[in-house]
Specification:
41% of the residues lie in helices and 17% in strands. It is of the alpha/beta class. The chain has a single domain, classed as NAD(P)-binding Rossmann-like Domain (Rossmann fold). A 7-stranded parallel beta sheet has the order 3-2-1-4-5-6-7, with helices on both faces. Helix 1 links the parallel strand 1 and strand 2. Helix 1 crosses helix 8, helix 3 packs parallel to helix 4 and helix 4 packs parallel to helix 5. The longest helix has 22 residues. The radius of gyration is 17 Å and the shape is globular. 43% of the residues are buried. One of its GO terms (molecular function) is L-xylulose reductase (NADPH) activity.
Length: 241
């Protein structure tokens, strides 16, 4: 397929590690102008060395005011990928207010704030993709707060698809099951925990990082030009069981 992303400017949050980092590298290979955002300035320096020409912004997305200030001078964008996210896995009764706020401040408040701040920078016809989760569609034990935050991401995406429609800006979310990033491997390394979930997936495996990146690139590209306001499952058939 032809590369219709060549020359486009795309901002990616969560660019330091995991899926966000891998997406930045793929977009660089596709000859995009990439702007990587992450709170870890050291990881962003590594990204710039690996992908010459990449611009970076170091900011903690859980800080509303600092995020707005850091993004105010961003150039016009053809695409926005809100990938940054966090999770804490523990029983519902044990969650603290601080842990609740930590997850919601990054996973949904951060996505809202970044997108609101950059809305005037989005070119007509741009694409926005927000990282959600299969957990927004099927509850998982120990993921109560994470699940709620990602369900909010799905419906923020649908609402923005309506609001941005007159500008021909598409907004979708991607809903993967477990993806084997470093964080994913840590969360799902215990067979006693991963076994029941794997048994629900017809392919009997978790997703790889490159498979999540493939889907994100698709949603950012013109190949998905009539896909708007959707939550795209990426789960090996989990939902058919």
């Amino acid at each position: 397929m032809e590369n219709d992303l060549k020359g486009k400017t795309i901002l990616v949050t969560g660019a330091g590690l995991g899926i966000g980092n891998a997406l930045c590298k793929r977009l660089h290979q596709l000859e995009c102008k990439v702007i990587g955002v992450d709170k870890d300035a050291a990881q962003l320096e590594v990204l710039k060395k690996e992908c010459p020409g990449t611009s970076t912004i170091a900011v903690d997305l859980s800080d509303w005011k600092k995020t707005k200030a850091a993004l105010k001078d961003v150039e016009p964008l053809d695409g926005l990928a809100n990938i940054a996210g966090v999770t804490i896995v523990k029983p519902f009764e044990e969650f603290t207010e601080e842990e609740f706020d930590f997850i919601f401040n990054v996973n949904i408040k951060g996505v809202f704030n970044v997108t609101q701040t950059l809305s005037p920078k989005l070119k007509d016809g741009a694409a926005v993709v927000n990282m959600s989760s299969q957990a927004a569609r099927r509850a998982l034990l120990g993921h109560t707060v994470y699940t709620a935050s990602k369900a909010a991401v799905d419906y923020l995406s649908k609402s923005l698809a309506l609001e941005f429609g007159p500008r021909k800006i598409r907004v979708n979310s991607l809903n993967p099951t477990a993806i084997l990033t470093n964080m994913g491997r840590a969360v799902w390394s215990d067979p006693a925990k991963s076994g029941p979930l794997l048994n629900r997936i017809p392919l009997r495996r978790f997703g790889e990082v490159h498979e999540a990146v493939d889907a994100l690139v698709f949603l950012l590209s013109n190949k998905s030009s009539y896909i708007n306001g959707h939550s795209l499952p990426l789960e090996g058939g989990y939902s058919v069981a």
